[in-house]
User: Fold this.
Amino acid sequence: MIRLLWRGLLFLALALASGFLLVVAAYWAGTRFIGPFAGARGLATFLGNIYADAGQGSPLALTLLAGPLAIGLAWKLRGWSLRRRRMPPATGDGETP
Assistant:
């Protein structure tokens, strides 16, 4: 049970960290292709704007931040459903095959 809890917490931490890294990658790509961000502190201003927009419920900011978490959850659910399909059906008589 403890191992399952730790695995869940590790998965959540990795998903949240990858959400942060995706925002940093978006900033880097934007500065390379579009130009410098219109803020005095660059990346810090960009991060502040993204998180402020997410706090106000902006769909684009929420998608950017929660995208890696959603992909990770979909991957976990896929694995769970594949494991359930491979399990042999229960016979119902209490005996194991």
